[in-house]
Amino acid sequence: MHSQSKTLQTINFSYLVSLLLPAIVVERLCACYYLKDYERKKRSHISFLILLTITSVGFLLSLEYHRVDSTLALHISMLVINLTASVIILVIEKYNYRKLRESTNLCKSRRGYSLAERFQVSENIRTCLMLKSVVNCVSIFNFLSTVTAATDNFNLSILWTNAAATVFNICVLTYGSLTMVVLYLHTEPFRNETRRLLAKVMSHHQY
Question: What residues form the membrane-spanning segments (predicted)?
Fold first, then answer.
């Protein structure tokens, strides 16, 4: 029973190690790199590699979490990774604003921009602005859940240990629920696909 519980705990923690924010950053970096045809040309391998990477890294981190004596280094690493991702999102936004100014001011631009490139720059800016709410939501709950989970490494009273565990559980529950709501409200493709799937399920149940 103990072994099974330990396994379930290990698997569950792989989902708690949130790598959503770095995944968003990598996807936006790809959009900047493939500026000419990112929206037009499907590159399914990018999404596949991102999902495979965050799943594999999350699982390995969850195994490491239960193997090491002190998990403080893991928690600090996750904070640094997510803080870096938040900063990169802002840098990407400023970079695309600069590209937009260059593409609209042809006299000062060192090269010409195609219509597809200008569209992609505008789309990158729109996506960055749209993702700000998602990024803020993810950052806050990543920080709170990581800090409260890190209290296991300190000799605290049972009161503070239980309080930290309670805050951690609330953060994880709220994070898992609220992130999807924020994504739904601020991401039109996600919203449209969700509505399409719900309509399909409802129509299926009617027959």
Answer: 12-34, 46-66, 72-92, 129-151, 163-186
Written as one letter, the residue type at 202 is: M
* CA neighbor of 17 nearest in space, from 179, 177, 172: 172
Joined tokens for residue 149 = 């989970």
Taken as a whole, the chain contains a residue count of 207
* pLDDT per residue as tens digits for the range 161-173: 888 888 877 877 7
Q: What are the extents of the domains in the chain?
A: 1-205
Contact 89, 28 (CB under 8 A): yes
Residue 116 contacts residue 35 (beta carbons within 8 Å): no
Of 56, 189, 44, 75, nearest in space to 142 by CA: 75
pLDDT at 7: 37
Tokens 């600069």, residue located: 98
Cα(84)–Cα(65) distance, integer angstroms: 22
Predicted confidence (pLDDT) per residue in 22-72, tens digit? 888 888 888 888 877 776 777 888 888 988 888 888 778 777 777 877 777
Other residues' Cβ atoms within 10 Å of the Cβ of residue 165 = 14
The total of other beta-carbon atoms located within 10 Å of residue 62's CB is 20
